[in-house]
From TrEMBL:
GO biological process: lipid A biosynthetic process; lipopolysaccharide biosynthetic process
Name of the protein: EamA domain-containing protein
Molecular-function GO term, any one: transmembrane transporter activity
Broad class of where this protein is predominantly found: membrane
């Protein structure tokens, strides 16, 4: 990655961590997530229309199939995460789903684009994945490792790894898409479609009164999360144009460290010894990703 791409990914990771903090503070309900996705589409609609109006002839041609598959990956991720959270805790599922994508991206990136991960990149992957696993430990004891090994053999891990595979595959598709069609048209198109589909599903599942009550209670937070989510992944897509997919996703794991800091600083969450060690390993991995780009 170029220094500019590294900067974009770090800003993207910080924005990602902050909107996840806002999501947790607001309760993290399905209705809140759906409203934040709808807010993304509404807030950025004027900009999307203006860009479409000014776009040179042929710029938007052929973007439809890219949007369709991008939407499929987003909705598949929602369904998989929902299934995972029914059998496992968020604190266990989320880091494995994000960090686990690094297990799939090197072969996927090589098959799709001929990308190769250098020695520092492989060391970085080991550090990040190890950091994610260490963060799951209740304590730095042998018994804790045995408990973690038992937990990793459960169905929650399988679903988290399936989500990681979806994330890895969608990253490869995103990289191909932004190299082939307008970044903004692709990103806004699949975001709006996925948001509309998810909102419709949540309204059907929970009812209009519940969604309306969530909007009244957390309107500002939902809009802010929607804006930050768009900013976060838009910057990541820009970095994917020139950066290797494994390196971009690896460096984005910086968001986990930022999230731990926000939780401790703003939510008063306890940062245990395993979590401190895990974050240290993760930050070492991110540094190696940036250095070995």
């Amino acid at each position: 990655m170029t220094p500019t791409a590294v900067f974009l990914v770090l800003i993207s990771a910080a924005a990602h961590a902050y909107w996840n903090y806002l999501l947790k503070r607001a309760g993290g309900t399905r209705a809140f997530i759906a409203l934040s996705k709808a807010a993304e589409a509404v807030v950025f609609l004027p900009a999307a229309l203006a860009l479409a109006w000014r776009a040179p002839a042929g710029t938007l041609a052929g973007v439809g199939p890219f949007i369709a598959l991008g939407t499929f990956f987003v909705l598949a991720g929602y369904v998989t995460l929902g299934a995972a959270y029914r059998v496992g805790d968020l604190s266990f599922i989320y880091p494995i789903a994000r960090g686990g994508a690094l297990l799939f991206l090197p072969p996927l990136g090589w098959l799709a684009f001929g990308e190769r991960v250098g020695p520092l990149g492989w060391i970085a992957i080991v550090c990040i994945v190890a950091g994610v696993l260490v963060m799951q430990l209740p304590a730095l004891r042998r018994e804790a490792w045995r408990e973690l090994a038992t937990q990793l053999r459960g169905p929650a891990t399988l679903l988290a790894l399936l989500m990681a595979l979806i994330l890895g595959t969608s990253t490869i598709w995103d990289k191909y898409a932004v190299r082939s069609v307008s970044l903004w048209a692709y990103f806004y198109g699949y975001t709006a479609c996925a948001g509309a589909g998810y909102l419709a599903w949540v309204v059907r599942a929970e009812g209009v009164p519940a969604v309306r009550a969530e909007w009244r209670a957390h309107r500002g937070a939902a809009i802010t999360v929607g804006v930050l989510n768009t900013l976060s992944y838009g910057l990541a897509l820009a970095a994917l144009r020139t950066g290797g997919s494994t390196y971009v996703v690896g460096l984005r794991q910086f968001s986990i460290a930022v999230g731990v800091w926000l939780g401790a600083r703003l939510l008063g969450e306890h940062v245990s010894a395993p979590r401190r060690l895990g974050v240290s390993l993760l930050l070492c991995g991110c540094l190696l990703m940036a250095w070995g780009r």
